[in-house]
């Protein structure tokens, strides 16, 4: 886990080495889950309904961001046909 002091050191090094001012803002999310579904239409519906809490990993896979465990559990109950994975298999290169 990265702490605030580590981010301040990183920002300071970026500024010293590259003459670029960097800053960091806290995000309201506590956890992230990769999402998948057997039915592409259901996955698309989930992604559209949750646009504000979605991101993509470096491979373009959808990632759901939850503020806390209660929100994640609620979303799981509301979308039982969506799988929420803690990890993701890396695509073969």
The total of beta strands comes to 4
Global structural class? alpha+beta
Rg over CA atoms: 17 Å
SSE succession: HEHEEHE
Shape: elongated
| Average pLDDT taken over every residue | 92
- Provide a count of the helices: 3
Uncertain runs are none
Can you tell me about this structure?
β2 (54-56) and β3 form a beta hairpin. This protein has helices at 4-18, 40-49, 69-78, and strands at residues 31-36, 54-56, 62-66, 83-85. Helix content is 38%, strand content 18%. The two termini are 29 Å apart. The model has no long low-confidence stretch (mean pLDDT 92). It is built from three helices and four strands, in the order αβαββαβ. By secondary structure, the protein is α+β, with helices and mostly antiparallel strands.
Summarize the structure.
With 93 residues, the chain is of the alpha+beta class. It contains 3 helices and 4 strands, in the order H-E-H-E-E-H-E. The protein has a 4-stranded antiparallel sheet.
Task: Kindly list the characteristics that best describe this protein.
alpha+beta, 4-stranded antiparallel β-sheet, 38% helix, 93 residues, 18% strand, elongated
Q: How are the elements arranged and paired?
A:
Layout: H1 4-18, E1 31-36, H2 40-49, E2 54-56, E3 62-66, H3 69-78, E4 83-85
Antiparallel strand pairs: 1-3, 1-4, 2-3
């Amino acid at each position: 886990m990265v702490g605030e002091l580590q981010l301040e050191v990183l920002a300071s090094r970026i500024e010293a080495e590259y003459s670029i001012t960097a800053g960091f803002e806290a995000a309201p999310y506590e956890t992230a889950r990769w999402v998948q579904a057997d039915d592409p239409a259901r996955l698309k519906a989930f992604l559209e309904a949750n646009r504000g809490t979605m991101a993509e990993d470096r491979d373009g896979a959808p990632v759901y961001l939850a503020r806390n465990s209660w929100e994640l559990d609620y979303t799981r109950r509301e979308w039982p046909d969506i799988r929420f994975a803690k990890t993701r298999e890396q695509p073969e290169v």
